[in-house]
C-alpha cells in the first residue's frame, strides 16, 4: 500500500489558459520580442508597480546585469550585496567588471543590515543592492537614507518579491532599478525571464538598447549590447500568470499564517510591521538538526523542503572572500524553507505541521 502523495517544496502552476496563450502566439507567426512583450511590460507595471516603467528580458540574471550596466556600473566600482542569497546577485555585479562587496544580514528578515553596509562602504562604492529575500522586503528606508547620505545609489534584487510592499509602497519602486525573476518556481512565471523596473528614463532607454544588441532601430547599433530579449511565447505565459499572481500570493500568506500559528519547536518567520511579505519561501530557523529535519520530512513524511542557501556567496569558489559575516553563517546553518505554495490543501498544511512538530518533540 502506497503512502500519502508527496508534497513538493515548490509547484509551478501552468494550466490551460497558459497553453492557449502560447498557441495563439504560435499561430500568429510573431514569436520573438513583439506585441506580447510590450503588453506584458505595460501590464506588469500596472498590476505590481504602480505604473513604474518596466523592461522585459530573458532571465532575472540578465535583468540584474543589464540594470547595473544601464546605471553605469563598471570596472573599478564596488557594489555592496548580501552573501546570503543566490549567486546571481553577486555574479551580475562581477559580470559588469565591478566588484561585489559582501555585507552581513540582520537576523530577523534575512536581508542586508544597514549598519553592516555602512561599514563596508569605501571610496569605490557606487551602489547598494539588497535582496528582498524569500519575499520579505529589505529595510529600504534605512538603505535608501544611507545611500543618499553617502552619495551612492540603491538597486533592488526583487527576484522573489512580486507583490511585497514596504510602508504601503510596492517593492521594486525604491531603487534606480529593480529586477523581478520569472523563473518557474517564483510566485509567477513566464517559463523563464525577468522584468526590470525603473523610474529613470535614461536607464530605461539603455536597458532597451542593451537587451537588443545595442539597437533601437535595426542595424543602427548605438552601443555594444546583448541578445537578452524575451520572446512573445514567454510573455504570453507571463501575461496569464499576472492575472493570477495576486490571488496566489494571498493564498501563500494564508498558508504561512496557518504554519506560523501551529508550528512548534522551530523559529517561524518574522514580518516587519511596515512590510507585507510575498512568501516566495516560508523559511524557518532550526538551530540544531536542520539537515536531519529536512531528511526526515522527505523520507518519513513525504514532504519536500529547501535549504536556501547552504554555502554563502563569499565562501563559494567563484568568490572566496575572507570576510566575517556571522549572521550570514548562522542563517546558512539554520534556514529551512517549508512548502507554502498556493497548491497546498488544508490536509497538506496539517501534514507539514504534524511532521515538524513530531520531529521537534522527539528531539526535545
Number of H/I helices: 12
Overall pLDDT confidence: 96
CATH architecture of the largest domain: 3-Layer(aba) Sandwich
Helix share bin: 25-40%
The gyration radius over C-alpha positions equals: 21 Å
Give, in spatial order, the strands making up the sheet with the most strands: 1-10-9-6
Strand content: 5-15%
Structural class: alpha/beta
Structure description:
The chain is of the alpha/beta class and 364 residues long. It folds into 2 domains: 227 residues, Type I PLP-dependent aspartate aminotransferase-like (Major domain) (Aspartate Aminotransferase, domain 2, 3-Layer(aba) Sandwich); 119 residues, Aspartate Aminotransferase, domain 1 (Alpha-Beta Complex), CATH 3.90.1150. Helices cover 39% and strands 13% of the residues. It has a 4-stranded mixed β-sheet with strand order 1-10-9-6, sandwiched between helices. A 4-stranded parallel β-sheet has the order 3-2-4-5, with helices on both faces. Strands 8-7-11 form a 3-stranded antiparallel β-sheet, with no helix packed on it. Helix 4 links the parallel strand 2 and strand 3. The model has no long low-confidence stretch (mean pLDDT 96).
